[in-house]
Amino acid sequence: MGLELYLDLLSASCRAVYIFARKNSIPFDFQFVDLLKGYHHSKEYTEINPLKKLPSLKDGKFILSESVAVLLYLCRKYSAPSYWYPPDLHTRARVDEFMAWQHTAIQLPMSKILWIKLLIPMITGEEVPAEKTEEVLAEVQQNLKLFEERFLQDRMFITGDNISLADLVALVEMMQPIGGNHNVFQASSKLAQWRMRVELSIGPSLFWEAHDRLVKLGEWDCSTLDPSVKERIVDLLQKFK
Amino acid sequence: MGLELYLDLLSQPCRAVYIFAKKNGIPFELRTVELLKGQHLSDAFVQVNPLKKVPALKDGDFTLTESVAILLYLTRKFKVPDHWYPQELQARARVDEYMAWQHTTLRKNCLRTLWYKVMFPVFLGEPVSPETLAATLAELDATLQIFEDNSFRTRALPGGPHISLADLVAITELMHPVGAGCQIFESRPKLAAWSQRVEAAVGSLLFREAHEVILKASDFPPADASVKQKLMPRVLAMIQ
Questions:
Q1: Cα B33 from chain centroid?
Q2: A66 at the B interface (CB within 8 A)?
Q3: Which residue of B has its CA nearest to A109?
Q4: Distance between CA atoms of A179 and A194, rounded to whole angstroms?
Q5: In CATH terms, is domain B84-239 a member of 1.20.1050.10?
Q6: Do A94 and A64 share a structural domain?
Q7: Least CB-CB distance to B90: which of A50, A62, A94?
Q8: Cross-chain residue pair A90–B77, CB shorter than 8 Å
Q9: Residues A95, A139 share a domain
Q10: Number of domains chain A is built from
Q11: Which pTM was predicted?
């Protein structure tokens, strides 16, 4: 058994790993763990990752979680072209800085938008109060501004002339609200242009293939949702109120 | 001007950076940024870090934020012993894994514990409902359990032969609830043994020095009204 990647492309972290592996022709077995069916809570998957989160990598007996760690591991093991994680001390530090910052500044709020705009109303039948929605959107705006000012500046990509792990991770996360029909790129032409460059660098075919499940999320028949999962989501709604 | 580190040892990530630099004999100018006086919000500091957070590093014209990035930068620039960030692929991946995981889990829980248990009532004079405090402590407990159980299936953490960046980042986080008066090691012998090993590897003197501020958290004098007003919005955003 070669390299296995446990993924559901609904998750931004999974998309980053998937795109990176495919783009770099890294051979792997795609192990689909259906988040919508709650398979990440299954006994089989819990044995792979007791934290029940995606993505996970399994390389022989070695199991690794956390997309940032997985990306770095793949980069090193498969000797990906150096622009993905540039060797220059300062440039590499900038990638590390983004990869650390994004957990709370980008990934979390982008995910919240998807929950607020699509998943919560779809699953519970209730809308999240407008005030809370505005708050989250404002936070996202603020952080996108910081992203442009600190990480993008006047460059083509975060590190300069080439795509890096940072651009890949940034973009897949900023795509998350698209699942709920919310496009964060329309607020800034600079961001929209950067988005296009990253997509082109990845290759539109691979990019959109990776985002297919997300884009179709609005069509999901959530009536099949496990009642206990639905209950958990209703509780989640309370936190937003 | 050599390397400058902008730190407040009240902050967990600052402690990790401080200990790492000192332990490895990395020469730096300590620039103290007193969070409780709102110095991180000053115009001068915004020049260093527009994100208004500590730690921040300045190396000539190069500025860097995020403790994980700073630790990796120092590791590479000053060629520290291998055990901090092992060359070996899988060992290194374990350290990366922990440093990624902790942002939204242990970091968040430890921060909330300190603020809800001590800083809000004592420093900011804001009451905290017993339900909020109980929920926060329960979450901390759950996360500590995950931390202990998984040890990140790691050999870099509890059980690993040598201290790594992951251990350092973890221990400095855990000292936050300790500073808040939580006896987190009491019912967790495995965790306690690991923490003693990490402290010994750092060196007791340096460890104590780095944690002097947090261990006195309950004694901070209450903030005056203007400071409180200045700090409140960011504090609320931080602990969300």
A1: 15
A2: yes
A3: B240
A4: 20
A5: yes
A6: no
A7: A62
A8: no
A9: yes
A10: 2
A11: 0.95
